[in-house]
Amino acid sequence: MAKGYEEFEAKMKKTSELLSTSFASVRAGRANAAVLDQIQVEYYGTPTPIQGIATISTPDPRSLLIQPWDSSTLKAIEKAILASDLGINPQNDGRSIRLVFPQLTEERRKELARQVKKYAEDAKVAIRNIRRDAMDKFKAQKKASEITEDDYKIAEKDMQKLTDDWIKEIDKIAEKKEKELFEI
C-alpha cells in the first residue's frame, strides 16, 4: 500500500477545522465572542488578540462586553474594532467597551451567506490541492518502484473517496452555517 496516506487525511481534517473556525467569525445575528478572534490590537507595539488583553462576556444575546485588564488599551481596542469588517460601532464608557449587535437585515444575511460560500469553496479547493499533492507523491512512489501499479490504483481510488467525503463534510458545515444566518 502507498505510504503517507494518513498524512493527507490529517491535512484534510485540519482544513475542515479551519473552515469551522472561519465560520465562527461570521456573525449570525446573536452575539458571539468568536467574531473578535481575528481582530488584533496594537498592544505595546505588538499585535495581540483581544482575548489576550481583555475579558469578553455576553451580558445578553445581542451584545458583547469587553473589559480590558489595562484601561489604557481601551482606545486601541476600539480602534481595532472600528478598523475590522464587523460593521459594529463600539460603545466606550471609559472602563469597558460594549458591542451591540443589531438585527441582521436581509441584505446583510445574503452578504454573509456569500462570504460563507466563499470560505467553503476555498476549503474545497484546499482539499482538492491536498488530493493532488497526495497523487503526486503516490506517482513518485510508483515511478521509484516503491509501490506497484495496483497499489497506485488503490491509493488513487482511496484518495478520491477521502476527498469526496471531506467535501461532503464541508458542504454540510456550510449548509448549517447558512441556515443559522437565515434564522430569525
Automatic annotation (TrEMBL):
Domain of life according to the entry: Bacteria
The keyword Coiled coil belongs to this UniProt entry's keyword annotation: yes
Domain Ribosome recycling factor stretches: 20-181
UniProt-recorded name of the protein: Ribosome-recycling factor
Residues forming coiled coils: 109-165
Gene this chain is encoded by: frr
GO molecular function: ribosomal large subunit binding
Assigned keywords, A-Z: Coiled coil, Cytoplasm, Protein biosynthesis
tRNA processing in keyword set: no
Entry similarity comment: Belongs to the RRF family.
InterPro entries cross-referenced by the UniProt entry: Ribosome_recyc_fac, Ribosome_recyc_fac_dom, RRF_sf
PANTHER family per the UniProt record, alphabetical: MITOCHONDRIAL RIBOSOME RECYCLING FACTOR PSEUDO 1, RIBOSOME RECYCLING FACTOR
Organism: Candidatus Scatomorpha pullistercoris
GO BP terms: translational termination
